[in-house]
Amino acid sequence: MANAIWRRFALAIHTASSPLSKTSGASTVQPLTWSVLSRIHDRQLATSKVDQAGSTEGELRDRDAEAVSENDQVTPEFTNRNPRNLEKMALAYKDKGWLNSYPRKNYWHKLFVKRTARHVSAWVAHVNGHVAIEASTEEWAIKKHLYSTTDVVARRNLGRVIAQRCLETGIEYMVCDLSDEELEAEGNKVFYEAVTEGGVTFEEPKSIGDFVAEQNYLPENY
């Protein structure tokens, strides 16, 4: 509403200052001074108050909506579509489960590796079971650059691909499914090193829930 008033005010100034408004036949119009501008402004404000008094609340809202562009309107509800937002802020919950339960579920993302007689596959799964990233030497984009799909070179390149896809997806921290004994094998060791060299860390940051003391609910502890 204020913008409309000032537009009318500017139009009045332009009209009063134009050469045609200075003379009208034989009579002359008072020259434009600050007192004249003040009277014009007061008259416009009085007119707007009368208009507002006779307008309903809905009409005033419609007038304000017309004065604002669509880009200036902000939705009152916001939905965060990044599924890893709480995990990056260390606010996501980690299901610790029972103390002696196996396999453990106290992670957000976990890297799994599977080797068959003809191919090597790796994937990153969320704790809820959803597979976020996967790669395999069975893919033609990877397979066409390899001499063998199961040797050490294949595993090294598979680790590089997994690391690149993790960073592109926004996953920088995870845990690895390979045990210390399995990492002693040359193929697993090369794969592990290729993933870490790609920028992925095999250690997730602690969440807020990790700072709470663990409780053992087994009967023998009571």
Describe what you observe in this structure.
- The protein is α+β, with helices and mostly antiparallel strands.
- Helix content is 42%, strand content 12%.
- The protein has 9 helices and 6 strands.
- It has helices spanning 2-17, 19-22, 34-54, 57-67, 85-88, 140-143, 152-169, 180-183, 186-197; strands at residues 23-24, 27-28, 109-115, 120-126, 131-136, 175-176.
- The strands form 2 sheets. A 4-stranded mixed β-sheet has the order 5-4-3-6, with helices on one face. Strands 1-2 form a two-stranded antiparallel ribbon.
- Helix 1 runs antiparallel to helix 3 (34-54) and helix 7 (152-169) runs parallel beside helix 9 (186-197).
- Mean pLDDT is 75; it is low at 16-30.
Alpha-carbon Rg, integer: 36 Å
Gross morphology is: elongated
Which strand order do you get reading across the main beta sheet? 5-4-3-6
Strand content: 5-15%
Note the main sheet.
4 strands, mixed
Listing every helix as H and every strand as E from the N terminus to the C terminus, the arrangement reads: HHEEHHHEEEHHEHH
Helix/strand-derived category reads alpha+beta
Unreliable residue runs: 16-30
Bin the helical content. Answer: 40-55%
N-to-C CA distance? 72 Å
Helix segment tally: 9
Question: Mean pLDDT across all residues, rounded?
Answer: 75
Q: Please count the beta strands (DSSP E, at least 2 residues each).
A: 6
Would you spell out the secondary-structure blueprint of this structure?
Blueprint: H1 2-17, H2 19-22, E1 23-24, E2 27-28, H3 34-54, H4 57-67, H5 85-88, E3 109-115, E4 120-126, E5 131-136, H6 140-143, H7 152-169, E6 175-176, H8 180-183, H9 186-197
Parallel strand pairs: 3-6
Antiparallel strand pairs: 1-2, 3-4, 4-5
Helix pairs in contact: 1-3, 7-9
